[in-house]
Amino acid sequence: MKDVMGIINLMENEGFLKELSYYRPVAAVPTGGRYRIIDFVLSNMVNSGIRNVGIITPQKYRSLLDHMGRGKEWDLDRKRDGLFFLPPAQIHYPMGIYRWDLRHFCSHLDYIDFSRQKYVIISGSNMICNLDYKAAFRFHQETKADMTILYKVSTGRENLAHCTVIETEDDGRVVDMAMNPVDRKAGKVFMEMAIMEKSLLVDLINGCASRGDCDFVKDGLIKNLHKLKIYGYRHQGYLAYIDSIQSYYQHNMDLLTPEIGQELFFKHGVIYTKVADGAPTRYKETAKTQNALVANECVIEGTVENSILFRGVKIHKGACVRNSVIMESCVVEEDALLENVISEKQVVVTRGKHLKGEKHYPLVIRKRTVI
Fold it and tell me: Nucleotidyl transferase domain spans which residues (predicted)?
């Protein structure tokens, strides 16, 4: 897929993740013990042979730059093509800064125009999966579609309140799209991924800009649904749509299922991330662990069950962590209990404290909190 470039559009609603996105964009939220959400879509592109990737960044992107650097871990530290950060357009209107994504596409048309690839894959970051774009690209060429969008059939477990759902004919052609649907428990979920010729993308951006339109999905896709030949390509594997604290928590709990973890991290290629060298985790004599993902540099003296621990977490003697996600450099002191908890970085839970959320409403602890 050397003739395909990738654009990752991070202009997503950050409010859904509340405390987790106070200091970072959704794409930079840690997940799975040592990864960030953006690692999945970026690794999918690299594993599919894409070597030119542009990232349209939101306002607060310092943590994203720190994580990704020059793209070395993804083999994008290159003299030709490589990884490009496309900062947000500061377009001022009487009501403040204009943030919808088409304006940001428009402000980076020079990057799109001068890229040497013929095709482009556009993707958001909050759809976590492991897929092969080569298969979807072959489908796009075989159907001779103007555009191919990727979708996943809902299992009924997801809340589709913030999704876009589509309807297709028997041959796969998309005949309808609806944002924030009324029926929130079933449908074909648009994965916010689209394949098209670069020239079509430029025409859509210019056409929308000339009419004052501002949203790529609503104005670029839905309004042109009957003018363009748009087909849907079905993704058959695992998909996590991160649009709330509950969905983030559920996705991390899903990783404790071996079949899901194996598929997500290895099925169509390895998921890459920033490498941080450190000592192995130390399990002391009193440590008890069951069904847990534990990163390096941790020290465990207490009990860890059905949980994910990031780097450098310390669980003291007599402490118990159950059904929880504990991020980097947290400390759980003696005889403390955490259950159904998402703990941000550098949190200290002092001796004897009991913190318990609900399975469908986990307790979230803000960064650097001491309890």
Answer: 18-186
Q: What are 210-257's pLDDT values in tens digits?
A: 887 778 888 888 888 889 999 999 999 999 989 889 999 999 999 999
CA distance 136 to 142: 10
306 φ/ψ angles, rounded to the nearest 5 degrees: 50, 50
Beta bridge partners of 97: 92
Q: How far is CA 56 from CA 5, 36, 130, 203, in A?
A: 14, 16, 21, 19
Pairwise CA distance, residues 345 & 350, whole Å: 15
- Between CA 110 and CA 206 the distance in angstroms is 12
Please name the residues in contact with 332: beta carbons below 8 A apart, sequence gap of 6 or more.
Answer: 302, 313, 314, 315, 316, 319, 321, 326, 338, 349
Q: Which fold has domain 4-266?
A: Spore Coat Polysaccharide Biosynthesis Protein SpsA; Chain A (3.90.550)
Tokens coding 154: 């809902």
Asked whether the whole model's pTM tops 0.85, one would answer yes
- State the Cα angle at 135 between 162 and 243, rounded to 5°: 15
Where exactly are the structural domains of the chain? 4-266, 282-365
CA 241 to CA 163: how far, in whole Å?
Answer: 9
